[in-house]
Write a structure and sequence with these properties.
Length: 692
């Protein structure tokens, strides 16, 4: 039972693979936090500024970029996150793939944080994306919670490496496990060993915070539960979802007596039964809930399941929506909210840039007379004396003052073991019973951030941008020379007026006023599809024809058409995906030979970052992942540049349903065909095609 009022429930959501700078770096760009803990520490939030940079292999500076140009999957390749590559990122070393990092010279050294660009550029294109960072406008939910409640700018992952070891530290305060030779090993990288028998077949062997709670009498599902996501069929086939990942990698949680402590997250829309959202709705949430997001499988740009974990290169808006649903569900039930501490953090930085060097004063879990066993070997000879890269930690609670930035008192910073220590303190477990090693024993806690009577109560955070706002921003980003006083697309065009007279046959199909044979005034705008204000008339592009009928009754009716016979999106969401895919890439597409070398990892392909930006690869990627878009993409390759707007054929975007007097339904689309015939633009005797 939690003894320390007023916190009676703790919810902990651990997300994936983002540094603090990557998602919260511009949080207090224009102002200061209202409260700083501890008193007397730096009054500023330690975020980003554009003077920060990394150098490439030729010594050229690549500065931090504010924003992502409308992209929500930056970086579009999953950066390296293994121990040796994090060493590259921190110390600008040059470890090769599948080879141990040269960590000897780095012991006790101050990381320069200057190797992120080079480490990413050696293997991936779109190099500048590793220096991009999301703004509060890009991530209104995560940033909104950080501003409304409390965020730490001195919270570090526990190990300078990837997911498994950091999640092990978050569960057990160490990353100890038995290797395939039966030796106790301190791991620094993920280990795929499910084919081995236990205990070797499970990476981490030591007790967890949940084992400690159970041993101290808090052994009921009312005391603690771990919630996981139900996987898609593809994720299940690939072995990533549909079960608790925490349970899979921690041997001490696999006892069948713990089966009742695991349940699915569910959804807010269908909040019922033995799920996280169901328990929030009916007020039966356990005292301590640990939540796993659904997992992104980074199989390549736009490929693989997109989870709610914020993991690159997944679309982070899915994580934003999940976080918003979870916060609103928790704050919307007073029985939960009035005594809640909601902890949000990320397991590791995932290779994304951060400018703050991790301290080198970490305590090894087995130091001194710790109950954690001393390993027989440390993978890659790492001594666990350095923390990992800085990651977000947000505390959400009615007992947290609005606009708070907090840090640990003393020289030892917060890391994942601080969460363990804080929860065990709040759950009333005496320290002599923790027995999770020296790192947990020495970890600073953050109970001092919790204040009674703050008046900070569960108000809604900023809404996610509307579909129209997101579409406008994405389309605007497609054209770097776009002017804000012009349309985001179809910027260049001409307007004409005239009259429309429908044929006698049209009256047989519809009672619509414009088709009854009278002289109908019309306003027509012809346009090029691009959002560029300087596109030439001869440009290879879709043309548009927007007609407004001024009806005899005083009303108006619109008919929008383009020269593309089949549109490439069936829903607003799909059109938004197309718009994002068209954002120009800062690096040129690779040849098939470079891609082969990338795949075989034989060498880092040569890059030419100064070539003009282009969005072609993104559009092709969109077509590969949206089956309904493929006919439209193929049709686009067959278009020709018309000699004039009047010598092109236009196809209406929308399908209309005509209903006869007997109830029979007919679907139809309208087309405009020039009486003089279609005539292509001639240049050097050849018609210009989009396919060229």
């Amino acid at each position: 039972m939690i003894e320390r009022a007023p916190i009676r429930r703790i919810v902990h959501l651990m997300l994936e693979n983002r540094s603090l700078d990557n998602v919260l770096g511009w949080l207090y760009e224009k102002d200061r936090p209202a409260h700083i803990i501890p008193d007397g520490s730096c009054p500023h939030f330690d975020g980003l500024h554009t003077d920060l940079f990394n150098r490439d292999a030729k010594g050229r500076k690549h500065h931090v970029i504010r924003g992502t140009g409308g992209r929500h999957w930056v970086p579009r390749f999953d950066p390296d996150e293994e121990f040796q590559f994090v060493t590259n990122q921190l110390f600008e070393t040059q470890s090769e793939h599948d080879k141990p990092a040269d960590v000897g010279p780095c012991q006790g050294a101050e990381p320069a944080m200057g190797g992120f660009y080079q480490d990413y550029a050696r293997w991936y294109r779109n190099n500048s994306e590793i220096m991009m960072s999301y703004t509060p406008e890009d991530l209104p939910v995560l940033n909104g919670l950080a501003r409304k409640y409390a965020v730490s700018d001195r919270y570090f992952s526990s190990v300078p490496t990837q997911t498994n070891c950091n999640r092990a530290f978050a569960a057990a305060g160490n990353s100890l496990g038995v290797d395939d030779k039966g030796r106790m090993t301190a791991w620094v990288n993920n280990r795929n060993s499910n084919w081995l028998a236990r205990p070797q077949g499970v990476q981490f062997s030591e007790p967890t915070i949940w084992n400690v709670l159970s041993e101290q009498g808090q052994d009921s599902p009312d005391d603690w539960m771990i919630f996981h996501s139900r996987g898609s069929w593809l994720a299940d086939v690939l072995g990533a979802e549909g079960y608790s990942y925490t349970r899979r990698i921690m041997e001490r949680l696999q006892d069948p007596r713990f089966d009742a402590h695991f349940a699915e997250v569910g959804t807010r829309k269908a909040a019922a039964g033995n799920t996280l959202f169901g328990m929030i709705a009916d007020g039966t949430l356990p005292r301590y809930s640990f939540i796993e997001p659904s997992w992104t499988l980074p199989l390549g740009p736009g490929l693989g399941p997109n989870g709610t974990d914020y993991h690159p290169p997944g679309d982070i808006r899915k994580g934003e929506r999940f976080l918003k649903d979870l916060y609103e569900a928790l704050s919307g039930n007073p029985a939960i909210w009035d005594s809640l501490l909601f902890i949000i953090n990320f397991d590791e930085h995932g290779g994304t840039y951060d400018h703050v060097p991790p301290p080198s004063n970490a305590v090894a879990p087995w130091a001194g007379d710790s109950t954690t066993p001393r390993p027989e070997l440390c993978e890659q000879d790492f001594q666990f004396d350095r923390f990992g890269v800085r990651v977000p930690l947000i505390l959400v609670s009615p007992f947290v003052e609005q606009s708070t930035v907090f840090r640990a008192e003393g020289d030892v910073p917060y890391d994942h073991t601080s969460v363990i220590a804080t929860i065990l303190d709040l759950m009333g477990v005496k320290r002599e019973h923790w027995r999770l090693g020296k790192r947990v024993e020495k970890a600073p806690t953050f109970e001092n951030v919790l204040r009674a009577n703050t008046g900070n109560g569960g108000d809604p955070i900023d809404e996610l941008p509307s579909m129209s706002e997101r579409l406008y921003d994405a389309l605007e980003a497609d054209y770097p020379d776009h002017r804000t006083d012009m349309r985001p697309v179809h910027a260049v065009g001409i307007g004409v007026t005239g009259h429309f007279v429908a044929s006698q046959a049209a009256r047989n199909f519809t009672f619509a006023e414009q088709f009854q044979g009278g002289l109908i005034p019309v306003t027509v705008r012809y346009s090029n599809g691009s959002g560029s204000p300087v596109e030439r008339d001869s440009a290879l592009d879709v043309r548009g024809m927007a007609v407004k009928f001024h009806l005899p009754s005083g009303g108006e009716s619109d008919l929008i058409a383009i020269t593309l016979p089949i549109f490439f999106a069936q829903t607003p969401e799909a059109f938004l995906g197309f718009a994002y895919a068209g954002v120009p890439e800062p690096d040129p597409p690779e040849t098939w030979f470079q891609k082969l070398l990338d795949m075989l990892q034989l060498r880092a392909p040569a890059r030419k970052p100064d070539l003009p930006e282009d969005g072609t690869q993104g559009v092709l990627q969109y077509a590969n992942t949206h089956l309904a878009a493929r006919p439209g993409t193929v049709a686009a390759t067959m278009l020709v540049t018309p000699s004039s707007y009047a010598r092109a054929e236009y196809h209406a975007l929308h399908t209309f349903k005509l209903i006869a007097q007997d109830g029979a339904e007919t679907f139809c689309r309208f087309e405009w065909a020039p009486v003089a015939g279609v005539k292509p633009f001639e240049e050097s005797g050849k018609a210009r095609r989009l396919a060229s």
